[in-house]
Amino acid sequence: MTAQTAHPTPSRASDRILVALDTPDIARAATLSRDLVGAVGGVKLGMEFFNRNGHDGVRQVVRASPDETPRGDATKQQRLFLDLKFHDIPNTVAGAVRSVMPLAPMILNVHAAGGHAMMKAAVDAANFEAEAMGIVRPLVIAVTVLTSLDEVDLNAVGQRGPASEQVVRLARLTQDSGLDGVVCSAREITAIRQECGPDFKLIVPGIRPAGAEIGDQKRVMTPDQAIHAGADYIVIGRPITGADDPVAAAQAIADSIN
Ligand code: C5P
User: Most buried of 71, 93, 222, 256, CB within 10 angstroms?
Assistant: First the structure.
């Protein structure tokens, strides 16, 4: 028997917002995370944070108050998207997944370019550990093509053909490997939905509320546009973390999703 994936697409608009805490600073990340409990669906911590602060740092960020035990009341904790993008041989990736499972992430991810066996090893390891721990399995998702790579870059690493075709091909491979979904840009939502169907989870960064600073993002969609295009979760960093009042900013974003 495999562990049940009990992370259905949320119904409340705020639960669809994952806030990117792009900082190595534990105190800053923890303050933002605690303030935003209930205002967002979870926090995203990536390799910058994790490689500096490890498991203890993550625990300090996701727990609701400094006094709570690391395995305290789960309903009061922030849900965790652990964005470490594993990419190695299957045995090593399985080991990496096992090593982060004590953090009970809601979402973890790997690179689809690692191939079928690697992705399957990741999801099998997550299943096995979740069952042993008596918790629901995280959503295991894949990164298809990094949006920082253009077609010249992709050609240079030996990949021919349009990036958009590679994205859909890798999304299909991700699904065939038993994973739950992919991270994708807003403009890829429609093609991947068509290819992979309604249950495949799409987690979408590059989101800007109407009128917000675009910063270094190139092609953005508003939260409402992305959700209506078919995103299950939207990843938003600076429009929330850089706001004078992050909670109000998150609430305004949730209110803008109808
Ligand atoms: O601050 P901002 O809203 O631009 O943050 C977006 C987050 O999503 C960052 O953590 C960024 O690394 C991540 N991301 C992205 N584009 C991708 C993949 C991830 O912006 N294609």
Answer: 93
